[in-house]
Specification:
The structure holds 3 protein chains of 3 kinds. Chain A is 31% helix and 27% strand. By secondary structure, chain A is an alpha/beta fold. Chain A has a single domain, classed as P-loop containing nucleotide triphosphate hydrolases (Rossmann fold). In chain A, strand 1 and strand 2 form a beta hairpin. The radius of gyration of chain A is 18 Å and the shape is globular. By secondary structure, chain B is mostly helical. Chain B is built from 9 helices and no strands. In chain B, helix 1 runs parallel beside helix 6, helix 2 runs antiparallel to helix 3 and helix 6 crosses helix 9. The two termini of chain B are 25 Å apart. In chain C, helix 3 crosses helix 8 and helix 4 runs antiparallel to helix 5. The chains are: A alpha/beta, B mainly alpha, C mainly alpha. Chain B: Pfam families: CcmB (PF03379). Chain B: InterPro entries: Cyt_c_biogenesis_CcmB (IPR003544), Cyt_c_CcmB_bac (IPR026031).
Chain lengths: 214, 220, 253
C-alpha cells in the first residue's frame, strides 16, 4: 500500500499556501509535517482527507495490487476537535464510531481493548464530558483503534497531552506502522521512529489574488 | 446507520437534550392564541387547525439549526462528511429522521390535547393529527437543507428559519386545507392530503441530497 | 480545575444531606402508610357521599379535582420557599427540594386540569373554556414544564440552581392570581366554597370527604417528595463520585 501526493496546490482564501507539493510514503512509513502557524498544515491534512478540494494536483492511495483505494474509507482523520459527545458515555461514543466507521480493511480492537491501550482502563462508563482535556484527547486517539483503517491523518494529535501520554501516543503510532499502516501527522512531537520522513511547510507561497485581481 | 439513529436519539433525550422543548414551545404558542384573539370558543374551533399547524411548523423549526451545528462544534461532522456520496446522503436522511422522531413526533402526539384546548371536534383533531404525521417529516427533511447551508455560520439559528419557512409554505397550505376539508362538507379530504404526502416524499428524497451537497461544499 | 473546588464545597456540606437521608429514611414508612390509609378512607367516604341534587354522580369528581388543585398550588409554594432557601442561605438541600417538587407539582396540576375537563364536559358542555381560573392553572402547568426543561437543559445541577430559583420566585405571582381569579373576574368556574372568611358553604356530608382527601393528597405529596429528594441526593453523589473517578484514572492531565 502506498500513498502518493503529486503537485498539490492548496490555498486559504486568496493566498496560496503550498504549490507543487509531492511525497510518497508506503507501508510502515510516516510523514511528519512541520512548519509555523498558518503555514497550511491543517489545510494540507484536510485536503488529503478529502474534506477540502485541492486547487490542483491529486492524492492517491494505492493498494498492494496497484489499484486506487478510496481515501474516505481507508483513512482515519483526527482533527483539532475530538468528535465525541459530552452527553454520552465513553463506551457509547466509541462503540458508535466503531460501528459507524466499519471498514473492510480489517477488524479494529474492541472498545474495552482500545481504552486499555490508551491507559484509561475503567473510564468506559463515565460521560465523556466528565473527563479532563488530556483524557478526552486520549479517548479521541482510541477512536483510531476501534475500527481499523490503514492510513492515519493526524492534526496536532498530541495537543493537551502530557509527557507520559506523548510517549503513549508515539507507541500507538509505532504499533500502527509495524502492523503495516501509514501515518501522516502534523506535529512537533518527535515520534522516535526510524522510517519517518518530514515535510516542512514554509508559509504563504504566493498571493493568488495578484493574478485574479490584476 | 442504526448506530447513528440511536446516538442522535440518545443525545436528544439525555440531560441538555432538546427532545421535549419543541412540544413545550408548541404548547406555549398555541396557548397564547386565545389571549390574543379572545376566548370565543366557536372562533377558536374554526381557526384551531390553522393555529395548530402554524404552532407545529414553528416548533419543528426550533431545533433545526443544531442538526449539524452540534456535530460541527465537536468535530464529528468531519467524520460524517468523510464518506462516499451515497452514504453521506443516507447519513443526512438518518439524522433528519432522528430529528423528526425527537421533535416532530411528540408534536403529533400532543396535537389532540391542544385540539381540546382549541375546542376542536374529534374529526377535526384527527385530521390535524394525520396531516401533521405526514407533514412534519417534510419540514424536518427540507429543514436539513437550511441547517446544512447555515452550518458554518455562528448565528445560524434565525437564518435557518428564514431560509426554510418559504419552502415549508406548501406543506402548511396543503396540511391546513386537508384539515379543513375533513370538517367542511363539500370539500374532499383526500386530494389535498395526497398532495401533502407527495410533498413529504419529494422532500424526503430531495432534502438529504441537497443537504449533503451543501455539507460537502461547506467543510473548511 | 474548577471541578475540584465545586466538589470540595459539596462534600463539606454533605454532612447535612447525610443526616437528611437517615432521618427521612426513618420517617418514610410511617408517612407512606398514613398516606395510603387516608387515601383509602378518603376514597371510601367520597363514594359514600350523597349525590348532588343538581350534578348527580359527577360531583364525586370534585373529591379528586379540588385537592389536586390545592396541592398544585401548595407544591409551587413549597418550591418558592425552597427557592428562597437556595438564594438566601445557598443550602444545597433547598435546591434538591425545589427541583424534585417540580414533576410532582406538574402531575397534580395535570390531574386537576384533567378531572376538571372531565367534569366540565357534562356540566358546562365543553372540555375546556378559556376563563380566568382555568387559564391561570394552565399557565401554572406551563411554568412547571418550563422549569423542568430548564433543569434538564443544564448538565451541572449546581449551575441550574440559582436561575431556576429566581424563575420560580418570579412565577409565584401566578399563585394569588389563581386563588383570586374567581373573585376578580366573572368566570364560569364556581367561587371558593371551602376556604373563605365566613366559613365553608358546602354541606358537611361533602366537606368531610373533601377534607380527608385533601389530607391524603398532602401526605402523598410529602411521601413522594421525600422519596424524590433522596433519589436526587444519591444521583448527585453518583455524579460527584464519577467526576472523582475520572480524575483518578490514568493520572488525567
Amino acid at each position: 500500500m502506498q500513498a502518493t501526493a503529486t503537485k498539490l496546490k492548496g490555498r486559504r482564501g486568496d493566498s496560496v499556501l503550498f504549490d507543487n507539493l509531492g511525497f510518497t510514503i508506503s507501508r510502515g512509513e510516516a510523514l511528519v509535517i512541520t512548519g509555523p502557524n498558518g503555514a497550511g498544515k491543517s489545510t494540507l491534512l484536510r485536503i488529503l482527507a478529502g474534506l477540502l478540494a485541492a486547487d490542483s494536483g491529486e492524492f492517491l492511495l494505492l493498494g498492494d495490487d496497484g489499484a486506487a483505494l478510496p481515501v474516505l474509507e481507508f483513512a482515519h482523520y483526527l482533527g483539532h476537535r475530538n468528535a465525541m459527545k459530552r452527553e454520552l458515555r465513553v463506551q457509547e461514543n466509541l462503540s458508535f464510531w466503531k460501528s459507524f466507521q466499519r471498514s473492510d480493511s480489517g477488524e479494529g480492537l474492541s472498545v474495552d481493548e482500545a481504552i486499555d491501550q490508551i491507559g484509561l482502563t475503567g473510564v468506559a462508563h463515565l460521560p465523556f464530558g466528565y473527563l479532563s482535556a488530556g483524557q478526552q484527547r486520549r479517548i479521541a486517539l482510541a477512536r483510531l483503534l476501534v475500527s481499523h483503517r490503514p492510513l492515519w491523518l493526524l492534526d496536532e494529535p498530541t495537543a493537551a497531552l502530557d509527557k507520559r501520554s506523548d510517549r503513549l501516543f508515539a507507541d500507538l503510532v509505532r504499533q500502527h506502522l509495524e502492523a503495516g499502516g501509514l501515518a501522516i501527522a502534523a506535529t512537533h512531537q518527535p515520534l522516535g521512529l526510524e522510517n519517518v520522513r518530514s515535510l516542512e511547510l514554509s508559509g504563504i507561497h504566493s498571493a493568488a489574488s495578484e493574478e485574479v485581481w490584476a | 446507520m442504526m448506530a447513528l439513529l440511536r446516538r442522535d436519539l440518545a443525545i436528544a433525550t439525555r440531560s441538555g437534550g432538546a427532545a421535549m422543548l419543541g412540544v413545550l414551545f408548541f404548547l406555549a404558542v398555541v396557548a397564547v392564541i386565545p389571549f390574543g384573539i379572545g376566548p370565543d370558543l366557536n372562533l377558536l374551533a374554526r381557526i384551531g387547525p390553522a393555529i395548530l399547524w402554524i404552532g407545529a411548523l414553528l416548533a419543528s423549526l426550533l431545533g433545526l439549526d443544531r442538526l449539524f451545528q452540534a456535530d460541527r462544534e465537536d468535530g464529528s461532522l468531519d467524520m460524517l462528511v468523510m464518506q462516499d456520496w451515497f452514504s453521506l446522503v443516507f447519513t443526512v436522511f438518518i439524522k433528519s429522521l432522528a430529528h423528526w422522531l425527537a421533535t416532530g413526533l411528540p408534536l403529533v402526539l400532543a396535537a389532540p390535547l391542544l385540539g381540546l384546548l382549541m375546542n376542536m371536534g374529534a374529526t377535526s383533531t384527527g385530521a390535524v393529527m394525520l396531516t401533521l404525521l405526514v407533514g412534519t417529516p417534510a419540514i424536518s427533511f427540507i429543514g436539513a437543507v437550511g441547517a446544512a447551508v447555515a452550518v458554518v455560520l455562528p448565528r445560524g439559528g434565525l437564518l435557518v428559519s428564514i431560509l426554510i419557512l418559504p419552502l415549508a409554505i406548501p406543506v402548511l397550505i396543503f396540511g391546513v386545507s386537508a384539515s379543513y376539508a375533513a370538517v367542511t362538507d363539500p370539500d374532499p379530504f383526500w386530494p389535498p392530503f395526497m398532495i401533502l404526502s407527495a410533498i413529504a416524499l419529494f422532500f424526503a428524497a430531495l432534502g438529504p441530497v441537497a443537504a449533503a451537497a451543501a455539507l460537502r461544499g461547506a467543510s473548511d | 480545575m474548577s471541578d475540584t473546588t465545586i466538589s470540595q464545597g459539596w462534600f463539606t456540606s454533605l454532612a447535612n444531606p447525610t443526616r437528611f437521608l437517615a432521618l427521612s429514611g426513618r420517617i418514610l414508612p410511617y408517612l407512606a402508610t398514613a398516606a395510603v390509609l387516608s387515601l383509602v378512607i378518603g376514597l371510601y367516604m367520597s363514594f359514600a357521599a350523597p349525590e348532588d341534587y343538581q350534578q348527580g354522580i359527577t360531583v364525586r369528581i370534585m373529591f379528586i379535582h379540588v385537592p389536586a388543585a390545592w396541592l398544585a398550588m401548595m407544591c409551587y409554594s413549597v418550591m418558592a420557599i425552597a427557592s428562597l432557601g437556595t438564594l438566601v442561605w445557598r443550602h444545597p438541600l433547598a435546591d434538591v427540594a425545589a427541583k424534585t417538587a417540580l414533576p410532582i407539582g406538574a402531575a397534580f396540576t395535570f390531574l386537576s386540569l384533567l378531572t376538571g375537563s372531565l367534569w366540565g364536559r357534562p356540566m358546562w358542555g365543553t372540555w375546556w373554556v378559556w376563563d380566568a381560573r382555568l387559564t391561570s392553572v394552565f399557565v401554572l402547568f406551563l411554568m412547571y414544564l418550563g422549569l423542568m426543561a430548564l433543569h434538564k437543559a443544564m448538565d451541572d445541577p449546581a449551575r441550574a440552581a440559582r436561575p431556576a430559583a429566581v424563575l420560580t420566585l418570579v412565577g409565584f405571582i401566578n399563585i394569588p392570581i389563581i386563588k383570586f381569579s374567581v373573585d376578580w373576574w366573572n368566570t364560569l368556574h364556581q367561587p371558593a366554597s371551602v376556604i373563605r372568611l365566613d366559613g365553608p358553604t358546602i354541606h358537611a356530608s361533602m366537606l368531610y370527604p373533601l377534607l380527608v382527601m385533601a389530607l391524603a393528597y398532602t401526605l402523598i405529596f410529602f411521601t413522594l417528595h421525600l422519596m424524590a429528594m433522596r433519589n436526587e441526593i444519591w444521583r448527585r453523589r453518583v455524579q460527584t463520585m464519577r467526576r472523582q473517578a475520572a480524575q483518578s484514572i490514568g493520572g488525567g492531565a
